Each structure stands twice: as C-alpha cells, then as structure tokens.
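Morning!

This is the sequence you dropped in the shared folder:
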Amino acid sequence: MTKKSACFIATFAALVLAAFAGGPAAAQSTKPWRHGLIEPKSDAGILMMAAERGFFKKVGLDVDIVPIKDDQVLLKAVIAGDLDSFEGGPTGAMIATAHGADVKIMGCTWLMVPHGIFVHDDINSMDQLKGKTMAISSPGAFPDIFAKGALARFNIPADAMKYASLGGDLDRYKALVARVVDAAVVSGEYAPIAAKEHIKMLVSAQEALPKFLRMCLTTSGATLNARPQDAAMFLAGEMLGLRYAVAHKDEVLKVTQEVTGIKPDDPRPAYIYDLAMQQHAIGTDVPIPLANFNWLNDELVKVGSLAQPMDLSKVLDDKPREDALKLIAQMN
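The structure's back. Tokens below.
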C-alpha cells in the first residue's frame, strides 16, 4: 500500500468511527473496541446479535460497530490501527500476512459460504460464461477468490472471463438484473427473489467450494499485544450472541429488520437463516477449522493469489479464543 493510500484509509476509517462511536464505556474496560463489519443485509440479525442485544456489554466491553462495504478496506483499517478487528473473509488476511502484514485471525463465525454464481436464466452451464463479464468485489477479496476458484473447479481458466469490481452483494445483484454484467458472485439470500427477475443461481458454493470459510474475526498482532483481555471479552461477547441467535430465529429476524429496514414480508432474512441452520454454518464458539485453512492455503496458490502455501501459524492465533471460553465458563 502506498503512503497516500494508507493516509486515505486511515482518514476514512477515522471519520466513519467518529460517526458511529458513542455510548458509555463498560465498567471492566474503559476503551471501546472498534469492530468493522461488511454493511448489514439479510444476515444482520446473526452477525449483529451480540451488539444489538447487549452481549458485549454483558461481558464488560463497549463495542462500536463500523459498517463498510468492502472487507479489503476493513483489512487495511485494521492494519493501520483504525479498527481493532473486523469480520470478513479470511483470504485477505492470509494474503496480507504472507506479504509481511501483522494480521491475526482469532476465529471464524460463519463456516460455510452461502454465496453462489448467479446468472440470467438463459445460461445453463459454466462453459457458457467463457468470454462474458462477472461481477466481483475488489481484486483479492472473497468474491474474486471464490469466482476464480469456482471456475477452476469446472476447468475454466480465470482469464477466460472479464471481471467487474462492483462493491457489495446488492450492487452486484442490481448490475446483473440490469444486464451490466452476465454473472455475479452474490449471497444466496437473493435466491427467493431472483426468479421474478429471470435470474438464478447457476453454481452454489456448497457445490463448487464446500470448504471455503465465509466469515472470520481478524485483528492485528499489535492490538492483541496491547489489549489481550479486551480481545478475549470481544470474542466472548461474539460467542454468546451467536449461541443466542442460533436458538432464537424470531429474534434474529427482528434484529435484521431493525438494523436494515428490511420489511417483515421480505423472504430473504428467513431464507438465509434457514440455510445457515441447515448447513450448520454458524460457529458458535468461533473455531479455527485448520482443515479448511489448509484447503484455503492450497486454493490461494491454485488461483494465483499466493506463490506458495503460507505458514498458517503466522496468521492463526487461538489464544484469544481460549481465553474467551474461560471467561464464559467463569460467568456460568
């Protein structure tokens, strides 16, 4: 990252943080924990349960949630010290660490990707995508890695397609509906409304890349060294929130509606919740599934994001998670 880019990211993150900061500090920790999250959508009730229903405060930590569209921006903000953590795809953190960044993955919250490659309903095979344009997010972000991995799964070279960087899921879906692009990597939450737009999911992540991890909690080594207890409290709050979400569908849907403004008759929040439960995708104890990370390591080499497999011990740190589990046990 250039000095100019780093300055922009730091300034942007600081402005966002200032806009979303607020509220009294918890008694046990006087400094808020700044956590970045990809802008809330139909899965918000799961991802934001800990913040919206007081589970962070229950463990004694004041958490400011900072929503940003792109997890690459979130990653840069963590590296710059403008965020204490963020929740997003793990591949960016792995690539950054392989290039010397001080980044640590503390655990994963969503263990299976609900996304897929969506297309117009006149496309019936992956071969038909050759020469066409697919909407992804930023190069190196999850949708980009997923798209190239899925193409490789069907023996289609990555350079057989064109790519358009188009922000979040909604941006990519709208571009597909408007025929600005021919295909898009989009969350499965759009499946129940796609048919009326003559859109369909051609290939699901479960079919193409079942070991791809969707969401992990990433911080920096500097933050862990400076705030080890707060990191444990943050993970403990996440665990309590996820456990509650898995057991309370109605409350998850209510939080989603409160956070996003999605109407009660919109089928997407219930669809994505049921899919997550069906796939046992929610990591209620924020695990670090080593088999999945080993697979991701090889996949990043396969799609050209890494020259060779990285040393996973440099990016995976289980200590905060172990401390969080002990903290929860002490509360019971």
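Headline: The chain has two domains: 3-112+212-331, 115-208.

More detail when I'm at my desk.
O.
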